[in-house]
Amino acid sequence: MAYFNTAAESIPPQAVGEAIQEYWQDKLCGMKGREGHFARLEACREISARFLGFRSEDVSFCSCSSEAYNLLATALQLGPEDEVVITDLDFPAGATPWLRASRPPQLRLWEASGGALHLDALLPLLTERTRLVQVSLVSFYNGFRIPWPSLRDTVRKHAPQAMLSVDLTQALGRVELDCSDADILISSTHKWTLGIHGGCIVGVPQRQASRLTTHAGGWMHLTNAFDADRFQRADVKQGAASFSVGMPNFVALYALNASLRYLDAVGVAAISRHADPLVARVRQGLLELGLEPMAPGQPDLPTGIVAFRHPRSAEIYAALEQERIHVMHHAGRIRIAVHGYNSFEDVARLLEGLRRSCH
Fold this sequence. Notes:
This protein is α/β, with parallel strands linked by helices. Helix content is 35%, strand content 14%. It folds into two domains: 2-10 and 267-358, Aspartate Aminotransferase, domain 1 (Alpha-Beta Complex); 14-265, Type I PLP-dependent aspartate aminotransferase-like (Major domain) (Aspartate Aminotransferase, domain 2, 3-Layer(aba) Sandwich). It is built from ten helices and twelve strands. The chain has a seven-stranded mixed beta sheet, sandwiched between helices. It has a three-stranded antiparallel beta sheet with strand order 9-12-11, with helices on one face. A two-stranded parallel sheet has the order 1-10.
């Protein structure tokens, strides 16, 4: 098959399968197996921190990005007097917790124009009451990549009280990151990182640990979980550690540790050097077929995603599937995701399949 759907599901390397089997062998040891479990947890923390550009102690894990954002909401404890900026290119996990809060903050929607988020449209949304600006470094929707330094400087200047939260799910493992000075970084583990479901990386730098400490119950994130006073008070570890409220999903962490080390051995820079020209060829091929990419080209800000709309998108998707060319289809939109395991031969096959199905 020619696989172009990593933005939804990756195809893990053999090392991940071996790591899952290693978890199984440790699990067969019962309680003794926890020695292996917690050793892999710490190894995964170390390699995840390296990918984020953080210290190991500034990185923790939960089950998925949705859980991470709901926990973030407990840390911020926003109310009607506060304002949150979200974008219409973001994934629901990062945008909807603020709608479901018991005392919802005021939401300000940063809307894209021509498939891109422009800073001049953000400026009117930033005030002294802005407490959070939530963005995805790379949009799941159309592949647009935030110009991070410009966004950071704009928010710091015009909304000095705001936390900057960045979802890395569509970037981590595929593009070189430039946002280690964000206030919190969040990423799922089953896409470009080549891991499996049930994991999420949370990074909170030490400078924001006291402000971004969750108010959730649990036990693993507590310092006094089994002390004599545990039913009188709950002392929470600060920052990233407060997002790991219960027993980790160890099998996801075994897998993530293996997949990130696999990617590290190849090098994200090498992956970009290989895959970015493939993305450029996809964009060029779409234009040659009269298909307009939904996001503008950004040669200086490469991503792995190209998307387009078509009135016969369902028919086109079905024809590609018939030829074992796998893309994503939803509501008239076809999304193409290019990772390091794709090739120019794959792209040629995709474009030929599109040529036959579109005309």
